[in-house]
Each structure stands twice: as C-alpha cells, then as structure tokens.
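User: structure tokens for Endonuclease/exonuclease/phosphatase domain-containing protein, please.
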Amino acid sequence: MPKLVAGRRKRGARAQRRKNQVPNKDIGNLRDWRYRDTSPPLRLAAIYRPPPSKRNQSTFELFLSEFGDYLEDIIMKPGRLIITGDFNLHVDNDANRNAAEFMSCLESSDLLQHVRSSTHRSGHILDLVISRKRDCIDPRVIVSEGVSDHHTLNWSLPIAKKRLTSRVVNYRRTKFISPDKFTTDIISTLTGSLTDTIVDQLLDLYYDTLRSVLDMHAPVKTRSVPIRSDPEWYSINIRNAKQKRR
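Assistant: Done. Predicted tokens:
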C-alpha cells in the first residue's frame, strides 16, 4: 500500500495563503490541497502562524477566531483531514493560557494533535500534526533535529489509490493504412459492379465497398480505457487548446 510522506520545511519557508480561503490575515499563512484520487479522499492543510508583533498587528484572539471559522468550514467536508504547520504555541505547557484555549478549540472540534515531543530548540511543541478523531488516523510522527531552530517533522499516512472505472471503446488504426493500396482495392472492388443507375443503389454499393475495404486494412479493435475525472484547473479552454494542438 503506498504512503503519503510529508516533512515540515525549515524556518523561513512559509505556506502560501489562498486568497479565497481565509478572509482575514490573522490565521497566518494557509494553503490546503485535496487529493481526490485516494480512497478515501484526503485534504491536507498547512498553516504558519507568525508570532504576534507590532508589525503584523496580529493577536492570539483574532487568530483563534479565524481558525475556528476555518474549522467550521472544513470540519464536515468529506474525506480524511490532516492539518499541519507551525502554530507558534507551546501546546505542551498546560499553564499557557493561549495554548490551553487552542487545545480546547481542537477538542471541541473533535480533533487530535499527534506530536508528542519537542519540535523547537527551546524544548516546546510548536509544530503540530492534527487530524479528526473519527478518521482514526495514526500519522506516526517522528521528530528529528536539524540545523534550524525548528526540528523536522516526518510523518507517514497509509493511503490507497482510488480504483478507476473503465469503459470499452472501439477504434481503427487508420494511420497505418497505405493510401495507394487502399485506393487500388477500392477501384478493383468497384470495377464491374457499377451496373445500376439508381442513385440509392449506387450509394449503398459505394458505402458497402468502402466499409469492406476499410475493415480489411484497418479492422475494428476494442480496448478498455480508464475513466479519469478532470482536475479543477482543467478548464474548457485548456481542453480546446489541447485538441487544437493535436
């Protein structure tokens, strides 16, 4: 069974926020991906919450409000859910009021936090891997130290590729037809047969002759082809441009 493996980037590599996803900057930087070809589908969200400062004018209260709104929007959507990233909260410190409120928010949304060891040189857990309880996910998080002040989070998730349905199509290998031989066979087949002067009969004869010669040079073959759904970015304009290029 294939595995989806993810590792957290070092400090300074921030996830890009989708403009139509988060209405307020206080949630930090967010990006999410949907993997529809897995069974069941998987949604992966990456969040970076910068520490509050005078420059970004962010507060924990605003972040928690925006994060709660995001959870309300995403929590009931189908498929499995993984939320990961740098939240800059000491969730291992029970005496930290902000961390306690954040963990309470996860609990009320039926979410689990899977990181159990320090992810920062200060000895605290700042980088998280979160999933829904009902998804029964065990990402098996492994924390390893590196050159950054943040440690690397490696986790794996067993996934199964969605089985594609298929359909049977008929086709002819017409590009391998020899034009000269094809023309010769049509002429030889029609020679001596054009005795009728009734238009309908001549049309039937011409059609039957073309069909029989075509079957001889490029017989009908069948094959099974998978049915794939187009990704969201594959628009009608892209489809038309692809067909035009062919």
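User: Anything notable?

Assistant: Confidence is low (pLDDT under 50) at residues 1-26.
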